[in-house]
Amino acid sequence: MHKKEVFGILRLAILNYDVEMAKKAAKGVIEEGLDALKAIEITRKAMIELGMKFAKLEIFLPELMLAADAMDSILTILKPKLLTSTKKIPELGTVVIGVVRGDIHDIGKNMVSTLLTATGFKVIDLGVDVPFRTFAEALETYEPDIVAASAAMTSTMFVQRDLVEYLEGIGVRDRVKIMVGGAPVRKEWAKEIGVDGYGENAAEAAEAAKRIVTKKKEGGL
Amino acid sequence: MTKANIWDIWSRAETGPICPTKKFEIYIVYPKIKELVKTYEVEYDPETIVPIDDKLIDDVYQAGMELLLEVGILCTTTERIIKFEESEVKNILRALPSEAILGEGKDVNVIRSRTLEDKHPPSIGAGPSGGPISEEMALKIYQSYAQEPLNDNLNGGFITTINGREVKAGSPLEMYAEMYSTSLMREAMRRAGRPGMSIRGSQAVTVRGAMAPAFPEWGRRKGDCLHAWLLPVLKTDYDSLCRAYYWLACGYPIWGGGMPTVGGLSGGPEGTAITCAAEMLAARILYQASLCIGTAAHSFYTGTTSRELLWTRHLASAAINKNTNIPTIVDSPYITYAGPCTEMSLYETAAATIGATVTGGATLVVGSGRQGVHSDYCAGLNSRFAGEIKNTVAKMRLKRSDANDMVKNLLAKYENTIKERNPPVGKKFQECYDVATVTPSKEFLELYEKIKKELEVNGLEFG
């Protein structure tokens, strides 16, 4: 692989959701002694491009998930190089995401999770039917900027309020911003339970997360 | 010929090939869906919402069958794939009955398999259909559907509170709410003089919640029809199998299928149509479903009457109805964007009902408005409207090409509001019905008559 081609191939690997090509290109970055941070930036930009395509349904969830896999494989290969560097992987922030207790519908959560990754967030996905305690433990372990709680049914939407109250009850609510989403969730509900962000669909949720961290960095939250 | 031995099939969840869920979703199922879309040249055609091309319909059936046989069904509890032999699937499809018997006594409703442009009208199951309803209005809402003569089965709603307490998944109150809702539906049926109507579906998220009303005092009967969904896409788990087992053991007919999402794991409308057909077959084989549902969702919208979703489910349903004897349930519609007592809500209902009837749906499902997320946005008059349309369409032997023109005209009247996200809110049940007498308001009836006249002008011969 020619030095000049490596970054281009890296980008193409993401845009073509090609894990093997991604691995090859990442190895090329190491072998050619290229800037790993720049490689990650290129990867992220390509993911953002795909995220925008998904928002218009020009591509679909599996393609976005495959691209996220390709990105993961690039990060895995390049991370050791960055550990020895003073530079850090630029991330918009960290989001802990999960479907609330009692609910196993994960499509919406997966869309948001993958789009957040595409947008440049580090995402910790707790899966479905997540107990409050697990959200709290993730908060301790990962110190996220945002906790995102999904619910697909009205009867589990109510559980989003319980999660907020639980995090308040154990005294950690103020340490994190909370977002909610899911088929029955509307902005009136988000307002009623006092969370910081909401998206009517996955693309809006990713935008809301960006707004939250931007505001936080500007000292507005 | 033999019916399925469920234990032979279900034991494969413990002996089949091991496969992590994510690998199944994006490295096995999705590539196969893409390959089938290409092989069978299935292409979304926004101008043909009701499928006219018989070859395309047959191709989607073949593709759905191939998808099921090639990838199987993943049990996510064990992360093993339940695989099927082609001969086994075909034997089961041949052996299972082409009709389902719902309800009891004089109110029994025999749902027979239909085919394209069938002269026999489908039946209807209507109600909030999972949409939220308040505890104050629940009984009256149920009554408004039960008393509609053209409505054959009653679909429950999700009662959001009991004595002011929110009903949450997995809680004791969820069990109680399900029992209470069942008893209210029975009372509504008694008030309508139709005590033996069938209840279709349950609203509890958990299996234990759904099982709760089986104790006879709460009113569930063997003529009721309970659901067992597949998880998206082509997946099941032990909860779903337990649910199916309990229904089979109790003798309730099952309705089942999947709800693949356009933009989700099944890809675009083309892949979603193939997946929808595959999941109807899968529910028949895996759960021995008496009725298989053809429906689909959208990644960014909650309603089910957009152009893409109409195209997707009409094609998938047509594929199953033309090529099998499965009695199918077709979304007609499950969820409108607009609220009740609006022109748009009636246009949406008309578009979905015309399409579902000419593509051979054996029974239709009419549900809630305002995207199914706000309490009490549902009303029995919508099911009367759908009932009159489906009877008229069948009686006229409406051709699919004519149905397509009608559906396109209707879509033109409302689809912009979906894109612009401003469908009319409409009225809650208590705002468009006299709650004391359970009769539609003058305004609602006049609107209903007005839209019926419009449909007459456009070719539907009511009367």
Taking pLDDT < 50 over at least 5 consecutive residues as the criterion, the unreliable ranges of chain A are none
For the record, the CATH architecture of the largest domain in chain A stands as 3-Layer(aba) Sandwich
Gyration radius of chain B, rounded: 21 Å
Strand percentage of chain A, roughly? 5-15%
From the helix content, strand content and strand pairing of chain B, which structural class follows?
A: alpha/beta
- Average pLDDT rating of chain B: 96
Count up the domains of chain A.
2
Describe the sheet with the most strands of chain A: 5 strands, parallel
Q: Number of helical segments of chain B?
A: 16
Greatest interface and its residue counts?
A-B, 30 and 39 residues
CATH architectural grouping of chain B = Alpha-Beta Barrel
- Total individual domains of chain B: 1
Mean pLDDT of chain A: 93
Instruction: Report helical residue fraction of chain A.
Output: 55-70%
Q: What is the structure about, briefly put?
A:
The complex is a heterodimer of chains A (221) and B (463). Chain A has 221 residues and is of the alpha/beta class. Chain A has helices at 3-15, 19-31, 36-55, 61-83, 107-119, 132-142, 154-169, 187-192, 202-217; strands spanning 93-99, 121-125, 146-150, 177-181, 197-198.
Description:
The complex is a heterodimer of chains A (221) and B (463). With 221 residues, chain A is an alpha/beta fold. Helix content of chain A is 59%, strand content 11%. Chain A has two domains: 3-83, Orthogonal Bundle (Methyltransferase, Methionine Synthase (B12-binding Domains), Chain A, domain 1); 93-217, Cobalamin-binding domain (Rossmann fold), CATH 3.40.50.280. In chain A, 52% of the residues are buried. Chain B is of the alpha/beta class and 463 residues long. In chain B, the strands form seven sheets. Chain B has an eight-stranded parallel β-sheet with strand order 11-7-5-19-18-16-14-12. In chain B, a hairpin with a 6-residue loop joins strand 3 (99-102) and strand 4 (109-112). Chain B starts with 5 loop residues before the first helix and ends in a 6-residue tail after the last helix. The model of chain B has no long low-confidence stretch (mean pLDDT 96). The A-B interface holds A 54, 57, 60-62, 65-66, 69, 101-104, 107, 111, 153-156, 158-159, 161-162, 183-186, 200-203 and B 22, 25-26, 30, 132, 158, 160, 166-171, 174, 203-206, 231-232, 237, 239, 261-268, 271, 299-302, 372-374, 421.
